[in-house]
Amino acid sequence: MKTLILYASTYGYTQECAAKLSNDLLGDVLLVNINADPVPPLEEYDTVLIGGSIYMGQIQKKIKEYCLANADSLKKKNLGFFISCGSAENFDENIKNSFPEALINAALSIENFGGEFRIDKMKLSHKLIMKMVAKATEKDNKPPAKPMPENIKKMAQTINHLNV
Ligand SMILES: Cc1cc2nc3c(=O)[nH]c(=O)nc-3n(C[C@H](O)[C@H](O)[C@H](O)COP(=O)(O)O)c2cc1C
Fold this sequence. Notes:
Blueprint: E1 2-7, H1 13-24, E2 28-33, E3 47-55, E4 58-59, H2 61-69, H3 71-75, E5 78-84, H4 91-98, H5 101-106, E6 109-112, H6 124-139, H7 149-161
Parallel strand pairs: 1-2, 1-3, 3-5, 5-6
Antiparallel strand pairs: 3-4
């Protein structure tokens, strides 16, 4: 079985998650960064897993646009979606905003890979937003961003089961 993992990542967290997912999957896996690599033709793949990270409630535009433009072909694949985000609270809403409804309904696996705030790498405007978010999070007693590697394993297990 051939699997394509297509992702976008702004500060590297989702990139690391996508690499972990690729290591956990059986069979032939191609890892493609939509911002750096050419996206291969979908015909070659049985399974397509697509994800990115959430910024102000939105996934990276290129991922959103790719899914919309290729919805008909994607619908015929074993499909999975993942997002990285700072808060699990708005997971359903973030998924709805990121991917076409018909594809969400067709997906075999949809997972939250958690998140990390990589302040050192952030551009200034993102650092300032983070300062405000950190204050609000503390005030509301909300849990800070945390990685969820268990959900990477979960997606890999679901996809690997298709092979058995
Ligand atoms: C400026 C900024 C805005 C963000 N907005 C959201 C948001 O609306 N919802 C959320 O759950 N996480 C938000 N996050 C958290 C990111 O989704 C999280 O840090 C993620 O791990 C980033 O992954 P990446 O390094 O692959 O881009 C935001 C982070 C930054 C820096």
